[in-house]
Amino acid sequence: MMRQLLHKTLKIFAWFLGGLILLFLLISYGKDPERITYGVTLSKYYAEELGLPWRDVFVAVLDELKVKKLRLIAYWPMVEPERGSFDFADLDWELSEAKKRNAGVILVVGRRVPRWPECHTPRWAQGLSWDEQKAELRLYLATVVERYKTHDEIVYWQVENEPFLSVFAKEHCGLLDQDFLREEIGLVRGIDPKRPVLVTDSGNLGLWSGAWRAGDAFGTSVYLYLWNPEIGEVKSFYLPSFYKAKKNLMTLAHGFKPSMLIELSLEPWLLEPTVNAPLEIQLDRMGIDKFHEVIGFARRAGFDEQYLWGAEWWYYMRGNGHPEFWEAAKDLFAET
């Protein structure tokens, strides 16, 4: 009797497991894109952290790599270094250089934007209460969007960066204020109703649902190699089909939206400033073989628009005797 019961239980479990596998195969179905267009994220702050002349990096990315899609960042401390006093010289220059070369731009606005420490707050605002900061953020957002809403080179506004990823950088960002995120998106749409809003979420850790529903378009990230101080290198166990499955589930649950891989990591994951890390450690965590592996992985993830993360580091490595990353990127952009 017990043997029959055990046999029946195992049979039910096998059918259940088989059903789950079949369901995953169905929802992860999707052809790989025939052609992928690539862009890059460029950060003035990160280039300066690497000790690089940031405008030289910017021009080299446009003229040597021939990049035609950029994600640029309207850092709050950069455009409002003093309370109520705005300085758009650097951002004006970036957008002007992009426009000269017919490059399309995703312009990121908000407090939580790309590059560590994730949330970028001007010194003058750091001692303010959250309610007071929100009042200042409204002014900053309105000023930036009003200034650039007529710029044809801007394709999307990105509002905040991975705002639903509360587990990361909590010490700098705190918990997500969802009501204020909705207010930010509404403010941007109110000033510039014709241009779509992009909202992003982590590919490794995010659930995607909140970001998918919040914006007009969706972006996600892929980090294949990470580093943990306790256990060392961690390679993501997700397959490319995992991203196809999540995208298909979001489409079924919330409807179709344009989606893109907004952050494909092609630089080493470090726990210290890059300039302090020995080159051998940097090359161990992102050598040219891993570089090509990550590109190959992303080709099968189902996104036909992909923004690469690490162009400043490729430039930095070229100046330190390792031009292979820059040259590989040049070959990649020549395909698009």
TrEMBL record:
* SUPFAM superfamilies documented for this protein: (Trans)glycosidases
Keyword entries, A-Z = Carbohydrate metabolism, Hydrolase, Membrane, Polysaccharide degradation, Transmembrane, Transmembrane helix
* Gene Ontology biological process terms in this record: polysaccharide catabolic process
Gene3D superfamilies from the xrefs? Glycosidases
Q: Which GO terms describe its molecular function?
A: hydrolase activity, hydrolyzing O-glycosyl compounds
Please list the residue ranges annotated as the GH10 domain: 76-165
**Residue intervals passing through the bilayer:** 12-30
Return the protein name: GH10 domain-containing protein
Q: Specify the species.
A: Candidatus Lloydbacteria bacterium RIFCSPHIGHO2_02_FULL_50_13
